[in-house]
């Protein structure tokens, strides 16, 4: 009996001890990153790329063909509106004006001649009428006289019409002659001088040699033109704050505000209008409020952050600390299997380090930027929220042992954009 009793105790120990060890053994605490939730100013924004340009800029092109005889300015020179800039050879145009002036004089002489002829025919008709009254001439002679007067009147009207035509041609010739002298249409700086003395200026809408003379710009009207994707254009309104980072001065952001929002998207030459599948963008113009005395030139590329919303001072957490049932990498999302996500209400939560244990807190979120998420409810300022590592955070369960001391939240700053184009 004693041997059987000992054997039973041994068998019980063999089966019970592992089970007891399984329930009494604790998982090792996981090392996590913890950060205290704090108040920050979160600004949601849209990123866009573009370039600098002058708001007031004129590209001068010739309206007539001619060889450049004199250039009165040089690149970089300041000019006022109406200043003489360039002169084309005008000999042929002066000869054309002289020819048309002679044609006008000839037509005026013809009118004088037709007026004399008409007066003569009217006098003859009156004498014929007197003779016809005393039966000295026939009715046919009277009819011929009247016909001659009417013909003289018609010829006079033709001469006057030809005079108007000649005067119109003369005005055109004078206009062409005047266009050989190029004057400044606006006040500004000569930013580009594309032609030299002796070269031939060509009136053309195609970018060929001689079709561009010079460029005048008001350098105090520098602005930015950025391409905003159609998915973000609804969030852009006039007057929104913009931070501009140029490629030449990447560490010096410039301040600006949205000045012009186009009604139609940018059209690319050669792109079919009906291309519904093509990505569309809008050329939004941003006015610079402070250039910080930087040497800015048109054509410089830049990146713009258009701030579309601001949370003010509000509780926020790093984006990676906020989990969601829409995140396919979390265990919660994997357990949903084939359930339709559209029918499941989106839920967000965080894990708080509560005395070495992971405590799940359901939170309400607000606006976000590229690094921070606004928290409207669910946690309090100063609580230590687990922010990573993500490979541990996404598998974390309520009650899991964790270790990690809360780090102080970084200073409240204005963060970057949430969407890009």
UniProtKB/TrEMBL annotation:
Protein name, UniProt field: Efflux RND transporter periplasmic adaptor subunit
InterPro entries: Beta-barrel_YknX, MdtA-like_BSH, MdtA-like_C, RND_pump_MFP, UPF0194_transport
Keywords assigned: Coiled coil
Domain Multidrug resistance protein MdtA-like barrel-sandwich hybrid: residue ranges: 57-206
Gene3D superfamilies: 2.40.30.170, 2.40.420.20, 2.40.50.100, Helix hairpin bin
Location, primary (coarse class): other
Cell compartments where the protein resides: Cell envelope
Residue span, Multidrug resistance protein MdtA-like C-terminal permuted SH3 domain: 350-388
